[in-house]
Every structure is written in structure tokens, then in C-alpha cells.
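step 3/5: co-fold with C6P
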Amino acid sequence: MSAIEKILLETPGLEDEPWDVERIREDFPVLKQTVNGKPLVYLDNAASSQVPQVVIDRGSKYLREEHSNIHRGVHYLSQRATTAYEGAREKVRRFINARDVRECIFVRGATEGINLVMHGYGRKFIKEGDEIIISAMEHHANIVPWQMLCEEKGARLRVIPMNEAGELLLDEYDALLNERTKLVAVNHVSNALGTINPVKEIIARAHKMGVPVLIDGAQSAPHLTVDVQDLDCDFYTLSGHKMFAPTGSGVIYGKTELLEKMNPFQGGGDMIRTVTFEKTTYAGLPNKFEAGTPAIASQIGLGAAIDYLNSIGRERAVRYEQELLRYATERISAIEGVTLIGTAREKASVLSFIIENVHPHDVGTILDQEGIAVRAGHHCAQPVMQFFKVPATARASFAFYNTKEEVDALAHAIEKVIEVFS
Ligand code: C6P
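step 4/5: write C-alpha cells
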């Protein structure tokens, strides 16, 4: 059973216990404004989601009452800041069900998380002739670092292909796995297509060959429930700004035994045990990977965002988003001239589409005039665009505070675009 099927089966139906979306919207001050004279319809959550008042309040409390550096001072404020920062780490641990807080490294986001593994693990353990497997639907953040590594080491990048629906071909994956494979790195949910990849299966097959797996969870942490122990992934990374927290917050999870044998990512303060001009020894986990002063306010905000998600009910939010996506898929695909890009059986949050004879950038501009925020472009996934032979797509991406009325507004605005260009 997939993670989504499990949530749909085990969570009370929204007909039994309705999702009070208007109540939820009250928590997000940014949603109350008008744009170009129209109520803001924010459908760019895959790029960055909005921040609830409780998270804003927690960040400003730190700035007002606790602002200070962490781990360095014996004074009152530094201790308060340290307690709040380390408290956020424990919230992250529980959120992804890591065994130990030391396995949760704070980073600026998924890009930095992947680069940390590339530098710390890849540069140490990947050698000439080795192979790294990614998938055909990766974000550039999970392509470029591995290409850089392959170039440096003389290793080879292999790619799991996908079908026209935007689903990975697991038989082809099996054929790629071999004794030269040293790492598999795939996204959990595709930002360009919305596909939920069967990562548990992908991990299990890699592990049979003794190969570690990194999961790019930038788009799954906000829209699914995540249990790194159940997945048994070796690394998992997420971005706070896509899950209702401020920019500059994020996490890379890694299994202790891997993190311990990796090289540090950056050198500097807080990641050392001792320094002489002859030699430096490194701090234990997680500090070894957190050089310099981190984004303290943002990471505390990430902890507050996790509290918020827990308070509204994770599973029910996922269920509501699934229902909204189903409604949007039916509504938008029924419009003549619209083609959906990405029609996998299991999807989360994302509806990518093109309109016949209209460039996606024009779609984005006209929708903006209607107060509707979508992303138009290649979504930092150019190989996906190449596969579907399109220059770009328009992408609506949903969160649990979006409504069916907003989907209707999107549909009307798309009809307007078609009218303008006909
Ligand atoms: N995708 C989007 O509009 P950062 O920028 O480090 O927080 O996340 C990078 C990243 C990595 N993997 C996936 C699957 C992603 O979707 C993203 C960010 C945004 O789709 C901005 S390009």
C-alpha cells in the first residue's frame, strides 16, 4: 500500500469531519490581500508556501527577546537562543521520525542538503568508474551537484527513465543498478510533475545491492507524512520555506554511521573540537556539519511551523490536499486547449499544464492580472521539459489553505487566456 493510500484509508473522511479551510486561512495573514484589485489566489506553494502567524510570532519573539548567537555564550540570551534552536531540531526529529537528533543537520534548504552529501560523502567515497543513479524528473539541485562530482572523479551519471504519464520505469532502474553503483539520489515528489515516486521500493532495491539512497524531500515534506526509519533512506532533505517556515531553514537527515564517516562540508566556527596550525579535529554530530553562525531565527521558525502542522492534523491536511488536487485536475483538464503535463496515478499538490498556442509566460502574466499566482517556466527541471518537448509549463501548486473556489477562479482565468489568444 502506498503512503497516500494508507492516509486515505486510515484518516477520517472529510465528509465526516469537514476541513474548515476558512478557519485555516485566518492563520495566514498574507492571504488576506488583494492583487491587481482581485483577492490573492496563491497557487505557487511548490516554490514557497506561506507562513502562518504563529511562525511569524515565534520568529519575532526570538528577534525581540532572545536574539543572540548559539552554542558560544554562557550568558542568558545565548542560552535561550541555543535552547530554542536545539528545541527546533528535536521537533524536526519527531516530524521525520529520525532515531536521534544528531542525525538532523540544519541547512539552508534542500539544495544545500544535497550539496552537503555531495561534498561530504561523494567526494570521499565516489571514485573513477563509479556510477550514481538519479531519475529523469529531478530538480537541478539533484542533478548538477552529481554532474560536478562525476566530472571531478571520472564517475558516470545514470538516469532512471519515465513514461509519458511522468512515472519512473522501475524495470529500467533494476537494469541500471550494478556493482559500480555507489549512490542513488531521487526526489520523493517531482516539483514539475507532482508525481509521488515509490521511494520505499527504490530504496529497498538499492539496499539489496548495498547502495545508499538520498531522497530529495523538498516537495514531499510539505504534502505527505514522512518517516525516515520506515523508508529506511540513508539521507533525506527538506526546505523549510516550502513547508510554512521562513527561507533559510532546512534539514538534511543522514544515518549516524554515514554522517560519522563523512568529511565535513564547510570549515569554520562551531564545527571543530580543537584547532592548531598543524591540525584540526572536528566536533561530533550534528555540529561537524554546521560551520559558522546558522540561520537561527529561520530554524526556530521551522520548529514553530512543525508545531503548527501538528496542531492542524497532518494526515487530514494531506487528505484535503488530495481532494483539492483531484478537483483541480478534473476542472482544468476539461478546458479545451489545455493539456496537463504529468498525469501519474499518485500525485501531490502540483498541476502543470500548457495551453495550445500560448506561451506559459503569457499564461502566468495574464493570471497575475487576475490576482492568481502560479509559476511559469521550466521549474528548474529542464530535462523534464525536454522529455515532454515543451519550453515551459504553467504550474499551479496547492496547499491545505487553498479552496475549490480558488480552483474555479483559476479555471475562469485560463478560459480568459484562451479567449484573448483565440
Ligand atoms: N523547487 C520550485 O518552484 P531549495 O531552493 O534549496 O529550497 O529547493 C531546491 C529544490 C530541490 N528539489 C526539489 C524537488 C525542489 O522542488 C526544489 C525547489 C522550487 O519548484 C524552486 S526552483
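step 5/5: annotate
Residues 46-47, 109-111, 139, 141-142, 187, 191, 216, 218-219, 239, 375, 379-380 surround C6P (CB under 6 Å).
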